[in-house]
Write a structure and sequence with these properties.
Layout (H helix, E strand, L loop, with lengths): L1 H20 L14 E3 L10 E6 L2 E5 L7 H13 L30 E2 L7 E2 L23 E10 L6 H15 L7 E7 L2 E7 L12 H12 L14 E2 L2 E2 L2 E10 L12 H47 L1
Antiparallel strand pairs: 1-2, 2-3, 4-5, 6-8, 6-11, 7-8, 9-10
Amino acid sequence: MKLANVLSLGVALMCCFLATNAQAPGCKCMSHNQGKCDASGGTTAADCKCTLPIGAENVNVDCTKLIPKCLLMKKESLGTKAGRRPRPEGALIDNDGLYNPECDANGMFKARQCNYTSTCWCVNSAGVRRTDKGDENFKCTELVRTYWVIVQMKRITTDVQDSDLKAALTNLITNRYKLPVKYISNIEFEDPLVFVDLKQNSSEKVAGEVDIADVGYYMEKDLKGDPIIHADEKFAVVVNGKNVILQDPLILYIDEKAHEISMKRLTAGVIAVIVVVVLAIIAGIVVLVLTRRKKGRYEKAEMKEMNEMQRELTS
C-alpha cells in the first residue's frame, strides 16, 4: 500500500514537471521588466499572455514588441503619484513633461489631453504637446503623426571608427527595438554628438510594426541608465568587442503638420531671456553706430586741420 502511494506521488510529480516544461518557451515579458506572463499550460508562443501593472490595473500587453509610449507614461505617472510622501499644497505638475495621458484601446495617445484637469491641449502621436492650452472645451480634430524622430546623444568613447559605430547602432535598433532598418533614415556624427534619424510616415507604417516614437522613448531610457526592457537583455553598443559609452540623450519630434504653439503662451522665463537677447543686440547696434560716427567726425577734423596747414605753408 505504501509502495503504491509512493508510486502515485511520483507519477503526479512527474506529470507536474512535464506540464511545467511543456509550457511555451521564453514566456516572459521581454519588452518590460515589470510585465507578467503566463502560458497557462500552452506549448506555443501564442499561448503566452502578458499583462503590465499600471496603477491598480493589470493591462493586457503584447510583450513580443515595444509597449506603446502612452501606456508607459501612464504607468510612470501613476507610479510617481502612488508614493507615500504627500504632495505639498500648491505644487505644480509639469504637463509638458511627464503627465498621466489618456490612451485609446490600442495604447495610442488620444489627440486631446487634459491630465484629468480643466486645462486641455492637443498632442502628436508621440504624446508631445503641439498646441496652446485651453479649457475643457478645447477641441482636437485629429491625432497628428510624428513622422521624424531625432535621437541626439553624446559620444564619450572616441577610439572607434564612425562607420563601425554606425553599423553597431543600426544593429542595436533593429534587434533590441525590433524596428525595420528601412525606418533608420540616417546616422550622422558631429563630434562629440551622434544623431540618429528615424523616419516613418503614415503611408509607410504597416499595422503591427513598431512605432518610431516608442523606439525614441525606449532608447532615451536606455541611454539614461533606466532601461525598461527585461534585465536578460542588457543595453550595450558594442564595436569590435568594445562597449561604446553614449549619454545625454535629447529626443526631437517633427510632425507631418506644423505645430500650433504661439508666442503668447511662452513662460515668463522664456520671455525674459528673449528680451535680454533683443536688448543686447540693440545695444550692440547702438555702440557700432556711435563708433562709426565718432570715427567719421575724427576723419573730417583731421582733414580740416591738414587743409589749414597746407594753406599756411603756401601763403
